[in-house]
Amino acid sequence: MPMTLPIFPLNTVLFPGVRMPLRIFEERYLRMLADRTPNDPAFAISLIVSGREAGDTPVFHEVGTTARLVSIDALSAHRVDIVVVGDRRIRISSADWTRGYAVAETGDLPDSPVDRRETAGLAIDAHQAYAAYVRGIARLVEMRFSVPVISLDTAVASYELASRLPLHTWEQQAILENADPRARMHGVQSLLDRELALLFKGGVAGVPLFSPGDRFTLN
């Protein structure tokens, strides 16, 4: 359904279902937050294409994510910590900056339908690969980690895993823009395989890591 929303351009990607902490300090975004706090969603987040987060009117991607407020902590009159959770993918029309922050018409971008029973195996395979990745990290830093259970819903799992991997922002944006959960999960699996290969081949400071070991749980 079309909706007019403030757009918060950032140098990161918010995925549906994923939480993100933010510190708001610019006057225009403090005003946006005050204007939108009673509303759900409060605003949308979009990755910056060019320009800066602060003190600028940056160009941002046409595909972003609506954000629901989870918590607000006013540290001072000019600094507020919030936590948001991504809700829906949206397409953003041209922005109006007359309020100091961007406001735009948006429309939902639903995923293509998939049979969850047929794609659950993709999520299981990706979770197992992620388990190996985290065990490898744990062994390298000699720490013990725990991992949340990844959803068997491929649409959800693809975002959960993408948010936990050390990806470039353009890779995150490509994942967000992919409306096919099956293809999206294949893309995440490919990126996960790449990170595993880099980890186990080079380790830290070029030290090879041939096995992640068995004494660590996932994170």
Summary?
By secondary structure, the chain is of the alpha+beta class. Helix content is 36%, strand content 27%. The radius of gyration is 19 Å and the shape is globular.
How would you characterize this protein structure?
The protein is α+β, with helices and mostly antiparallel strands. It is 36% helix and 27% strand. The protein contains 5 helices and 7 strands, in the order ββαβββββαααα. α2 runs parallel beside α3. The chain is globular and about 50 Å long. It starts with a strand and ends in a 17-residue tail after the last helix. Mean pLDDT is 88; it is low at 204-219.
CATH architecture of the largest domain: Roll
- Kindly report the average pLDDT value: 88
- Which superfamily, in CATH terms, is the homologous superfamily of the largest domain? LON domain-like
CATH topology of the largest domain: Archaeosine Trna-guanine Transglycosylase, Chain: A, domain 4
Please outline the major beta sheet.
5 strands, mixed, barrel
What's the total number of strands? 7
What is the share of helical residues? 25-40%
Stretches where pLDDT falls below 50 for ≥5 residues?
204-219
Q: Which strand order spans the largest sheet, edge to edge or round the barrel?
A: 1-3-5-6-7
Order of helices and strands: EEHEEEEEHHHH
CATH class of the largest domain: Mainly Beta
End-to-end span in angstroms? 36 Å
Q: What structural class do you assign from the helix and strand content?
A: alpha+beta
Approximate shape? globular
Whole-number count of domains = 2
Indicate the radius of gyration in whole angstroms: 19 Å
Classify the beta-strand content into a percent band. 25-35%
